[in-house]
């Protein structure tokens, strides 16, 4: 005698995409490339694919992220690949090659235009030294406000600072993402239904935007938001205000699913300079985390040393990344990545109106 085994559930392309956290176009491409097992019927407009659920589960498991608790996503892909981003955990940057700076943040379909006149060497707009960083933001091991050594009974907390003043009417880039999920592509992560209670304000970049949580794609890479008006946050990493490296990303420009072309939330990010401030507002808690920009630079998309920006830290800081440079339509890739890092100055017990 033999035991009968039940056949795996047959999923539509859309159902498979939902389980994998990708788009239907991604699943179709993987099927056509032979990377995802499927069955097909002939339909009036082409093949109709059916994907076995066990094949989807195998792909999801095999290509899932390698991560540690409260850490940053790690990736096994090459830095020079065309994927969307993952970071490096701890001191593994030399062993695990990161791909965060390869985010395809132009749009979902590759129809957006770049800016600039081609790839250039890395240009540092401003870079802080250890001596210029605020002492209060350096280490978790001491209470910055009192100098008392932290312990289990005395948890670390940021100092209290005043809420900076800025011109609210000048903040023209970004929004709430009220248009919903209107971007698609291999690097896009479903995110507008995964909202947080936060918003990011960068006066120097004329930016004010809601924050959505992001996860990883099947290839282990950190995705970009599916709406160009919001900022994405790596939700398995530290939260704003906590010790560690808070990873954020946003679109520079875009072409949406209806063919509309526009400027993304991070269009003016190159205007940010050393000493500017980044605010992360927690409306639920009624506080604002105030960060000081310590570095802003542009690097080639294939910079072999790009993983240095993505390591876990004990410093309370954030790293914000977008695309810039020239756009290669054939490769669907921007030539450079704009990186802005900032350290935590403290917490304001107020929120902007």
What is the alpha-carbon Rg in Å? Answer: 21 Å
Q: Work out the helicity level.
A: under 10%
Q: Major sheet: size, sense and barrel closure?
A: 8 strands, mixed, barrel
SS-based class = mainly beta
Average pLDDT, to the nearest integer? 73
User: Could you give the distance between the termini?
Assistant: 73 Å
Low-confidence stretches: 62-154
User: How are the strands of the largest sheet arranged?
Assistant: 6-7-9-10-15-16-14-13
Count the beta strands: 16
Query: Could you say which overall geometry the principal axes of the C-alpha atoms support?
Result: elongated
Strand percentage:
25-35%
**Total helical elements:** 3
Q: What is the ordering of alpha helices and beta strands?
A: EHHEEHEEEEEEEEEEEEE
Topology:
Blueprint: E1 10-11, H1 13-20, H2 24-32, E2 39-43, E3 46-52, H3 53-62, E4 123-127, E5 188-189, E6 195-202, E7 207-214, E8 224-225, E9 231-234, E10 244-249, E11 253-255, E12 261-263, E13 277-282, E14 287-300, E15 316-328, E16 333-348
Parallel strand pairs: 5-8, 7-9, 10-15
Antiparallel strand pairs: 1-3, 2-3, 4-14, 6-7, 6-13, 9-10, 11-12, 13-14, 14-16, 15-16
Helix pairs in contact: 1-2
